[in-house]
Amino acid sequence: xxxxxxxxxxxxxxxAWASNxxxxxxxxxxxxxxxxxxxxxxxxxxxxxxxxxxxLLTYYNIYNLSRENNFKERLGNDLNWALSFDQxxxxxxxxxVHLLHPYKGKFIPQLVEYFLDNHIDxxxxxxxxxxxxxxxxxxxxxxxxxxxxxxxGMNAVGIDVSAFNTLIGNCKVGKYDFADIKIEIxxxxxxxxxxxxxSNVIEFETNLLQELNLFNNxxxxxxxxxxxxxxxxxxxxxxxxxxxxxxxxxxxxxxxQYNIKLKQDKTEFNNYKIAA
Length: 276
What we know:
- It is built from 14 helices and 5 strands.
- It has helices spanning 2-6, 11-22, 28-36, 53-65, 67-75, 90-93, 109-116, 144-151, 163-173, 178-197, 201-219, 224-230, 236-257, 266-270; strands at 8-10, 42-43, 50-52, 134-137, 155-158.
- Strands 1-3-2 form a 3-stranded antiparallel beta sheet. It has a two-stranded parallel ribbon with strand order 4-5.
- Helix 2 (11-22) packs across helix 3.
- The longest helix has 22 residues, at 236-257.
- The radius of gyration is 25 Å and the shape is flat.
């Protein structure tokens, strides 16, 4: 028992320990995230929660310290690990408009900056772009390249097969009249408030969240469920499908009780459509 106690740390102690281990800041919030999502196991209750040094070491060996070696084994020793920007915090890799909308296929702006700016190093021995040039991105996705080109004083053209992607990109790089934006936001907010006022949506959502909370506490208790998932003790796909079927009658009962219309008519949507 004594040896086990010696290995336990508070969340604050674990953040300092992990920061020293990997050479960059690991905040208590980062440790709490690992607990919340089952990467490491929580020991004790919230008032005196602790984590195991062994769990932390295993996690950081797998996900951090060995990442460079693992990639080099697969891709070769000439891999420029600096381009992983592994040292960057999320706040840096999602700066200003890059986090306006989630997008799974995006890459971080620092990577684009590396290739577009005018610095050279042992890997990048030449520069190809300068202020005023036109940068073409034929697969522009969420617009990261367009934004970074504009930041560096370049012009940018983006093309994407997805209309939704082009909408995201255009929203990020467009020039706006803030007075017009304020008017439009006020109009949309008023329309939404009117819609909610004359519907049962709030009561429905409140009761639905209560039912979900009870259901999740019973079948998806965090962090225990996340930990068991990470350890391979639960087949997430099969388990999730089973519990979805269990909860469906509860959901359908609430939909009928509050007379919720799951699909609005097009004419109803037009009343709340953003003006062009």
